[in-house]
Amino acid sequence: MATVTLEQELNPWEAQAARFDYAARKLNLDEGLWKVLRSPNREIIVHFPVAMDDGRVELFTGFRVHHSMARGPGKGGIRYAPDVSLDEVRALASWMTWKCAVVDIPFGGAKGGVICDPKKLSQGELERITRRYTSELIEFLGPEKDVPAPDVNTNEQTMAWIMDTYSMHMRQTVTAVVTGKPISLGGSRGRREATGRGVRVVCLEALRHLNMSVEDCRVIIQGFGNVGSNAAHLLMESGCKIVGIAEYDGGLFREDGIDIRALTEYRHRNSSIVGFRGAEAANTAELLTRPCDILIPAATENVISSRNAAKIQARIVCEGANGPTTAVADEILADKGIFVIPDILANAGGVTASYFEWVQDRQGYFWKEEVVNERLDEALKQSFADVVHYGLTHDVNNRIAAYMLAIDRVASVIRQRGFYA
User: Fold this and answer.
1) Tens of pLDDT, residues 162-184
2) Domains in the chain and their CATH numbers?
3) pTM of the predicted model as reported, rounded to 2 decimal places
């Protein structure tokens, strides 16, 4: 890979493009399809006014990017954060295309976001932002067009507001326009835990593939939000020891394993893991480089980069977050022989369960949680096997194998459909 600056390395769109280009080259993808799949199909930027609680009018900026709709409606979350950028949303939309293709579900890739700081906004202000953002995008949304979901700083309530706004415009209740909704509004059982459950599935598959013991497995998790906490619970139930938890405001370490149930209760009471007496305090950055069997970055992008990749001592890195490892760091981890489960496979449990929710909404028939979990486990095990087989067949690492498999599936559909003129 060519020499890049740190700024280029940490740019999510540049990172995605570098991996895409490498995988496309290995596939001998023809130039025309290369151009089609490298660029988003549509990028929407909206600027909209919102009346604030104190009477002021603020102007907010929102994005929605459709990367590819070749295999089905767009699918991807909506995030609210001060640092949301078009490059970030572009990258996330493309990752959704590849993620949906890796697990072979009939969605394309989309992503959205609004530049705002939810911590400084009231519930009423968040609702007005959500409804106005939705109305600005109304012609591009729909069960057959684009189906949003929760992401950073959005949740079931956010999806309920989007569903209601869209339904009011359509003059009928349309539950299938979003996923990640409350169960009472057509949400799916098992959806909230699905991403963490998927992480557990692929971690256990990796241990089997590498002939490693579950009982002796030491796990460090960066991020104790929805994905990290559920993965921790489920891996602990499977027999793994969760020896480290790293959060933005501090970390915890205990050699013989942290009691995740007790930690969850503590975090619920204190809104932080800092001060938990069931483990010793640890530096968050240092935790990522401590010896362990599985390291799960499950929070933000670019936490493993050229600055710390050489110090990673995990046998397996399972990417619970989107884009936690830079393209430059990929090469370093590969040279160290670390088995990486890439994000477009590792955290695909969420979009797989979203697909199940969409199917249930369209059927008007809802499944028991054990059915959702059983089908999720089956889908992730098959996808893991597909990626590993593809990697061994083409002599590439898991990330490039996942990209090649996904690109191949999307390109095949485009070839069959042809180009409308």
Assistant:
1) 999 999 999 999 999 999 999 99
2) 42-185 (3.40.50.10860), 194-346 (3.40.50.720)
3) 0.93
